[in-house]
What we know:
Rossmann fold, binds S-adenosylmethionine, alpha/beta, 18% strand, 7-stranded mixed β-sheet
Amino acid sequence: MNNETLKQQVKAFWNQASCGTNMTQQQKFTTSYFEEIEEARYRTEPEIFSFAQFTRFNGKKVLEVGVGAGTDFMQWVRAGTQAHGVDLTQEAIDNVSHRLEIYGLQVADVRVADAENLPYPDNQFDLVYSWGVIHHSPNTIKCLEEIIRVAKPGGTIKIMIYNRHSLYALYRWIFAGLLKGRPFQSLSKVLFYHQESIGTKAYTLKEMKNILARYPVGISQLTAPMTNHECSYYKARLWRWPAYLAACLWGMRRSGFFMLIELKKVI
Ligand SMILES: C[S@@+](CC[C@H](N)C(=O)[O-])C[C@H]1O[C@@H](n2cnc3c(N)ncnc32)[C@H](O)[C@@H]1O
């Protein structure tokens, strides 16, 4: 499958429903619909706050790449940033537009755009933020290059991408590979075919460190911490204890599925 066909499939997948909207049964685009999505997101992933540090960027020019249903995007707006947002899908932009309207908020710019080809000149943003997005795009490295390009020299980049050498990836391999009679399917293949939209990629910390070495950025953070939410996937005690032990042995700061990357663009 070529990259263009793959991107159309990624787009079609996320156009059906933006990320996190399955957490509510409320009528679409109502206040309660958005409030339930937001409540569920930060109950399960409270770590987003300490990573994003929304309020630190008050007054700054921020771009969020891949806004999805816009829950984090709302935090940028409420924090008083000059918020810009893009997503590959019209569905995401519709979610964000309705959300802003409900709360009577306005933003600098929110539109459909491809992270592999950002519609902004070089050196524009104090912060470029992207949570769980660029590993879904066929050319993840092009997305990374675009994010670096549009960040200002001295600006900050915060990205979350999936960590292949994580407990969750192993868990997916057990259920979608091993127990489905495909024990020789690699972690990469399992995630490619069975993690959200088709074509999802995941990197190791070492791979990412090597990739980042090619670009004009300094690494402020490169970790994959195990979160409470991840531990709670393993509901039965039978699974939870070995999972917890495996995370302790592999390292609590590198066995999580969410790889947290914070960069400073070199001046
Ligand atoms: C898992 S969701 C994450 C959304 C949001 N950041 C969040 O955390 O809820 C992935 C999002 O990435 C978007 N996406 C995938 N490929 C993209 C691309 N090339 N350019 C822009 N957005 C893209 C999808 O449309 C989808 O909204």
